[in-house]
Amino acid sequence: MMLSRLTLGVAILAALVLFMSGSGTRFGLWPFQTGFLLLKWAAYFGLAAAAVALVGLLAPKLRAGRGLWFAATLTLGLAVAAVPAYWMQAAGKVPPIHDLSTDLDNPPAFAAVLAQRGDASNPPEHGGPAIAEAQRRAYPDIRPLVLSLPPAQAFARALRAARAMGWEIVAQDAAAGRIEATATTLWFGFRDDVVVRVAPTDGGSRIDVRSASRVGVSDVGANAKRIRAYLAKLADSAD
């Protein structure tokens, strides 16, 4: 009985560490590096508890009368370990970049959000040709959106779509065709900067979007997902 309770306790501890890794970072209790370290230890605790629980289920003497305890521990331990494992797998599939733009020749520049970036470790300037080439290889679908609308109407729709995304609108300038915003990630609460540019083009308007992380080398694909979601929402609203 002691072993089954102990392993379940370790699995519960792993779940708590997993929760703390994100919530503590989100609320500023520690830097994101500490959050990543806690995430790693949550996986270790979860896998250790699951391994012992599996032995307990396979060994008749250990399993007798305690099968449900071990089964619960195995399930919880693997569930906790699956979260960091998923992120590690996702990180391995994308290049270590954190700044994406639909216009790689002339990425929209940040202006209004600069005052809010604080001690962000990543510079606001685009990384240049090397980053652009890495994006082209990994995200060939990140391209401008052309709407058959005059710029004023396209800007209004772009602004509505940005608000629908839940972004914090920092600045909006219809005359210049610019929207600057901040997006906050769900788990760690990372604040990423977004700029939308609306420009006239033949027969309508061209929408360019740039999304960049303030910290971290790799965004694990977050900025690409954000740009895709935004452009999809904008395209749907134009139907």
TrEMBL record:
Transmembrane segments annotated in the record for this chain: 42-60, 67-87
Alphabetical keyword list: Membrane, Transmembrane, Transmembrane helix
Pfam families in the cross-refs: DUF1499
Name of the protein described by the UniProt record: DUF1499 domain-containing protein
